[in-house]
Fold these 2 entries.
Entry 1:
Amino acid sequence: MVKLILLDRDGVINKELGAYVTNPVDFELLPHVVPNLIKLKRAEVLVVVITNQGGIAKGLYTHQTLTQIHQKLKMALDEHQLVFDEIYYCPHHPEYGKCLCRKPGSIMIEKALARFGVTPQEAIMIGDTQRDVDAANAAGVKAVKIESNQDWSSIIDEIVAH
Ligand SMILES: [Mg+2]
Ligand SMILES: [Zn+2]
């Protein structure tokens, strides 16, 4: 039984632009996100966002701007009485120093599992890059790779049916 869904952000929750989202205006929530979060809430499945935001290390935007972007996201969900259980992001980029958290590293995923007391077998990751899949697998979590901006409703339908 799935207790925790791990979602990549860009290309899964908001429209992948082919560039970093550097301000709230460029953050466009994908249309299937709210309906799927409603289904997951009904099924009492936790939802955590796991995102690399290396644009912060590159100086393209700040932690504060990322907070504003996520505030826009939270407000959009709040209209539907929805909330992410947590958002974990890695602000680092290998060109500007190494870190342990950036996907395909699994630390952010392991943090989520520990925080919510969920085993790897009880979690599933949805991402649009191989990095997402590798990060999940490194934590022992199964992952589904979608195309960027693809509707992932069928994955959720299958999860909540079980
Ligand atoms: Mg992505
Ligand atoms: Zn990091």
Note: The CA atoms of residues 126 and 144 lie 5 Å apart.
Entry 2:
Amino acid sequence: MKRLLVTGGAGFIGANFCHYWSATYPADRVVVLDALTYAGNLASIGELVQQQRLRFVHGDICERDRVAGLMREESIDTVVNFAAESHVDRSIEDPQSFLRTNVMGTHALLEAARSAWGPAADRGMRRFHHVSTDEVYGSLSPADPAFTESTPYAPNSPYSASKAAADHIVRAYAHTYGVPCTISNCSNNYGPYQFPEKLLPLCIVNLLEGRPLPIYGDGLQIRDWLHVGDHCRAIDLILRASPVGETWNVGGGSTEPNIRIVEAVCDLVDAAFRRRPDLRQRFPGSAPAQNRSSRSLMQHVRDRPGHDRRYAVDGSKIARLGFVAQTSPAAGFAATVHWYLENERWWRDIVSGAYRDWYARQYAAS
Ligand SMILES: NC(=O)c1ccc[n+]([C@@H]2O[C@H](COP(=O)([O-])OP(=O)(O)OC[C@H]3O[C@@H](n4cnc5c(N)ncnc54)[C@H](O)[C@@H]3O)[C@@H](O)[C@H]2O)c1
């Protein structure tokens, strides 16, 4: 039986991980530590909290002594660090908060683990897993091979630079102090509970509200798309099977330009409207409710400064551990559109709150 501390467990991937873990290992103890920033949403794990299948602690990973106390109190043997500022656009507006949480916060968490776990007596029982991104490797040109675990770091945005710095600190704590760390660098995740500033949920929510679908520049930026359920399985595998000190790239095995993703989402929403007459009543402002194609809402806007052109992940190392992404983009995108249609309350609460102001600032001038 494991005793996990999941930081950032009220965010997108963290919440999915909590659902995955409590369904897969119901006897394990899961404690979530989350500062509930704009991206954290207790509703994403509310059911698990109500059913007492996990404990939620409202707190900041930067509070080293408090985190160490929580780890001792709960006899935590496994930390999975999802807590982060995660949106590149926001890192361009406000790099400071990214350095604070992603760099200093990860450092404070490592110190908390070092203090709570003491000298590495039973390292085999303990694990500090740090969740990072493929963006630390920078941008690929069309002919470059996909990122491997030995691709040199070349981060281009304040977000990816802060994640790269955190990865180096994690590595240094494993090497210098023997903290039993592993790192995973994953590609673009999508799925349920994703905050609607990221591409897929932004498109779905904007479509249903009849708002423009912003396409940065030519929309030909290529990303590797990973269903969040596959990502959770990959982390589980790393926790169970990876030696300490290893780094793992995790991708979905399918690369697509952003504009194709937006087109696919438009077509999935249009198809759902054709099948289900109730959607016209529920979303009267949407294009299909007004007999227009959702693609008519696509709008090219000024590109993000320094926008990376192409990411691609070589997943052959983690494949040797037994990981294969199981969700195809076609099935995963369809399931994600379906989830947002069935969970309107979840995103409507967000859209009518803090996100509205950010959205207005971001796109009003474009
Ligand atoms: N979403 C992706 O596609 C993707 C891809 C690669 C890597 N990642 C990494 O995966 C992790 C999770 O990403 P996500 O998309 O779920 O992010 P998210 O923005 O949806 O969630 C982040 C969570 O961390 C919490 N948090 C922020 N600052 C905190 C602090 N100081 N203390 C405690 N909690 C804090 C927030 O409240 C939120 O619940 C991040 O480390 C991110 O860099 C994400």
Note: DSSP finds 14 helices and twelve strands in the chain.
